[in-house]
Amino acid sequence: MTFRKGWIFTASLALIFGLVSCETTPKEDGEVLTPSETGENSGGPINAAGFLKTDYDPLNKWLDERFEVDYKHMTPQLIFDQVPLNDIFYETSDLPSGAPAFNFSSSDVSRRELLKKISQHWKLKMSFTEDASGKPTAVRVEG
Asked: b or e along 57-94 (b: 16 or more beta carbons within 10 Å of the residue's beta carbon)?
C-alpha cells in the first residue's frame, strides 16, 4: 500500500466511525431521540392555544389532526403547497423574499401548531377570511 492510499484508507475509516457515532442523541431521562426530531426548529412543544381560533368544527378538526413532517429548506412561497398544509386555500400577500429557510421535523405535530411555527419563523400574520354567513373560506397570510 502506498502512502497516498494509506491516508485515503485512514480518512475513510475516520469518516465511517464519525458517522456511526452520530446515530442518536440521548435525552435527559434516558430516552433516545432520533436525529429527525432534532431539527433546527423543533425546540419542544408548540403552544398553539388560541391560534387560528374558529367556531367552525370541521376546520378545527382539520387544524388539530396530527402528522409527521420533515421540512427542509422551505421558503414562504413553497411552504403552503406542502403536505399536510396543502388541503385548504391560502390568500398570501407580502411574503418575505430571501427569508431564512424553514427547517422543521416532528413525528407528532398538528397543522395548527405547524402554522403557528411557520408564522413565528417568518413573522407572518395569519387569520381566516369568511364568507357572508361567517364560514371560513381561506387562511389569510400576510408578511
From this structure: eebeeebeeeeebebeebebeebbeeeebeeeebebee
Alpha carbon distance 31, 18 (integer Å): 22
Name 141's bridge partners: 92, 126
* Matching residue, cell 502512502: 3
Question: Which position has the grid cell 396543502?
Answer: 86
For residue 119, give every residue at least 6 positions away whose Cβ sits within 8 Å of its Cβ, in sequence order, or none.
Answer: 51, 125, 126, 141
Give me the torsion for CA of 69, 74, 77, 79, rounded to 10°: 10
Nearest residue to 37 (alpha-carbon basis) of 106, 109, 136, 89: 106
Residue 37 DSSP code = G
pLDDT of 48 higher than 90: no
Q: For residue range 22-36, list pLDDT tens digits in order.
A: 444 443 444 333 333
